[in-house]
Amino acid sequence: MFQIGNNMDLDLVQIFVQVVKNGSFTKAAQQLRLPKSTVSKALSRLEKDTGTQLLVRTTRSQTLTAAGKEFYDTCVGPLEVIENARKSLYGNDNLITGKIKLTASEDLGSHIIAPAIAELCHKHPGLKFELNYTDDVLDLVADGYDLAVRIGRLKESSLKVKKIGELKLMLVASPKYLDGRPRISKVEDLESQDCLALSSTLNSSGWKLKSKSKSVQVPIRPRIASNQMSSLLAATVAGGGIALAPTFLCEPYLRAKKLVQVLPQWSSMGVPVSMLSPLPFSSSARLRTTTDHLATALQSALGS
Q1: What is the CB-side half-sphere exposure of residue 270 using CA atoms within 13 A?
Q2: Of the CATH numbers 1.10.238.10, 3.40.190.10, 1.10.560.10, 3.10.50.30, which one belongs to the domain with range 98-160+271-302?
Q3: What is the pLDDT of residue 144?
Q4: Which residues of the chain have pLDDT under 50?
Q5: Which residues have C-beta within 8 Å of that of residue 103, sequence separation ≥ 6?
Q6: Class of the 3-89 domain?
Q7: Taking the CB of residue 250, how many other CB atoms lie within 10 A of it?
Q8: What pLDDT is stored for residue 284 in this prediction?
Q9: Is 68 exposed, middle or buried (0-12, 13-18, 19+ CB in 10 A)?
């Protein structure tokens, strides 16, 4: 049996990494095709060998300790490298197999990522995906995620980051809302309009907009607020008011003439879109292939 470090058993480390990635002993045991009791004993032995508690266990869950998180971050990359070397040795380095656990915002996930993932599944039958669409910022290590797509500025962390582009937002309204109202000709006119805004922006002082020559912050009067952009856009199509919405979501409605662009010379400041992973993006064929494919799909949709 191969050992590393100070009599540390590599097999035990691999089991520990799978427990963290899968989020439970049961799922890790299924992935490794081992009895759950074997997985549990392996982790206990690893903690005994290292003299360090790596996981805090309860009857319903397990959470990484600070030492456990640091150990996982240190081990997971090299283990992927060893697995890739093994595949190369046996002529399987080009096989793209395994599972990717991914999280992204609801709107990017539903409209861009889901179709791109379906394409990947068609091209690579050995790939599997677990997708979680939420606007919450999840702990990728503790929750066992391989990849995340996030909108907005990122906090400093040890995660690997790949910048994709910028999300652009435009002002839109339905013909039904605009019909019979005074023409909106300048950005200050927005202050007297019914506006639809994300709940997260209600405490801000308005919409930050830019033209070719200047930037302004316009106070708005939110008539409808929601935590989901797609629902705001549906309300906009129904005549609820003016929304500042992502271009990629608006385009189908613009083509169908269900929405029209308001003040086309004005748009939002660009919002960064990034991919993050606890692992180097090239650490495995499946992660590299998924990252490259999603980056292309996102950049195409965002116009980056």
Answers
A1: 9
A2: 3.40.190.10
A3: 85
A4: 1-5, 93
A5: 131, 132, 133, 134, 138, 140, 143, 145, 147, 148, 149
A6: mainly alpha
A7: 22
A8: 82
A9: buried
Give the tokens for residue 3.
Answer: 């050992």
Tens-digit pLDDT profile for residues 24-64 = 888 888 888 888 888 899 999 898 888 888 988 876 778 88
Please state the φ and ψ torsions of residue 282, each to the nearest 5 degrees. -100, 15
Residues 6 or more apart whose CB falls under 8 angstroms from that of 127 comprise 96, 97, 98, 99, 100, 120, 121, 286, 289, 290
Answer for the pair 233, 253: CB distance below 8 angstroms, yes or no. yes
- Domains in the chain: boundaries: 3-89, 98-160+271-302, 169-268
CB of 241 closer than 8 Å to CB of 172: no
- Which helix H or strand E contains 117, and what residues bound it? helix 114-123
